[in-house]
Amino acid sequence: MSENEPLKGKVAIVTGAARGIGRAYALRLAKLGADVVIADRDLQGAAIYGERLGAESVPGEIEALGRRSIGVEGDLSKPDDVKRLFDETMKVFGRVDILVNNAGGAIGREPAALPSNTSQEDYDLLMDANFRTAVLCCQAAAPIMKAQESGIIVNIAAQTGAAPLPSAVVSIYGSAKAAVAMYTRNLAAELGPHGIRVNAISPGITMTARIAQQAAERGIGTNSQVEALPLRRFAEPEDMAGVLEFLTTDLSQYVTGQVISVCGGALLTAS
Questions:
Q1: Residues 219/167, Cβ–Cβ less than 8 Å
Q2: Active-site choice (25, 173, 183, 254)
Q3: For the chain, percent helix, then strand, then coil, each to nearest 5?
Q4: Ramachandran category for residue 67: left, alpha or beta (phi over 0 → left; psi -120 to 50 → alpha)
Q5: Which of 66, 111, 185, 237 could make a disulfide contact with 218, Cβ separation 3.0–4.6 Å?
Q6: Residue 271 pLDDT more than 60?
Q7: Is 173 a catalytic residue?
Q8: How far apart are CA 46 and CA 51, in angstroms?
């Protein structure tokens, strides 16, 4: 392990990593020395939102950095697909040192739905994509990491899981992310004695290609929202990747069970 490559020899799984913040997480881990498994429902998903890659796919970008990488497509709300992801990872790499549960998002089909009228279809979609995926992947990673007596899990919560938007939209998404935050704390308590740290990143509004494309429709990324931020700008994916670097290296070796808000000061009270 070198100072410039603190994760050399480590194997990471990043879910929802074919584009956006997940891609930024994966590339940062690779730059730190890790081999990275890219898990996503569509490994070509960046093209949907016009996000430009440095290779044909994110695994290709990671390999260009001199790391090993594979891509695994699947729906991680389904136990069989989760099992296949971890089976393929163990077959190729033989270990799992880092799990980043980034799959999900405010992907409801009714973006302006309120807490009182969200459809059952959107409720199921949002809870499955944001909470169920994280739980299933954590449950798959835990026995592997216990056997290794080491491991790092980083779940992805959200600002809207700690405080609602004034318009009260994306409420079920926020509720799912609040569940992720509480699950993170409980899992940290369980796995800490096995040498496994579990934390969460709670992003504020982050200008990925998807958010930029959908901002107006979803009532996010407005001028009033950015003007209310102490830092007066929305986040970029690299802002989240920097916090992931902290949580996956020895810089945070005594940090577990924490939900770190990365929101430009949108939330100024304890979570």
A1: yes
A2: 173
A3: 45, 15, 40
A4: beta
A5: 111
A6: no
A7: yes
A8: 5
Instruction: Please tell me the distance from the alpha carbon of residue 220 to that of residue 208, in angstroms, as a whole number.
Output: 12
As given in the structure block, the two tokens for residue 79 are: 């136990």
User: Helix crossing, 20-31 with 237-248: angle to 10°?
Assistant: 40
Query: Which tokens belong to 166?
Result: 């004034």
Q: What are phi and psi of 98, to 5 degrees?
A: -135, 135
Q: Count of CB atoms within 10 A of residue 109's CB?
A: 10
Q: CB atoms < 10 A from the CB of 32, how many?
A: 22
* Residue 128 pLDDT greater than 60, yes or no: yes
Beta-carbon contacts of residue 193 (< 8 Å; ≥ 6 apart): none
- Cα 171-126-225 angle, rounded to 5 deg: 40
pLDDT of residue 148: 98
For 217-266, write each residue's pLDDT tens digit.
666 667 788 888 889 888 899 999 999 999 999 999 999 999 999 999 88
In terms of Cα–Cα distance, which of 47, 40, 11, 186 is closest to 101?
40
Half-sphere exposure of 70 (CA within 13 A, CB side): 14
Please report where in the chains the tokens 């609040």 appear, as a residue: 178
Residue written as tokens 């990491």? 145
**Beta strands in 126-205, from DSSP E residues, in sequence order:** 151-156, 196-203
Question: Which residues, other chains included, contact 60 with Cβ-Cβ below 8 Å and sequence gap of 6+?
Answer: 53, 54, 69
Domains by residue range for the chain, with CATH: 11-257 (3.40.50.720)
Structure tokens at 190: 């369980």
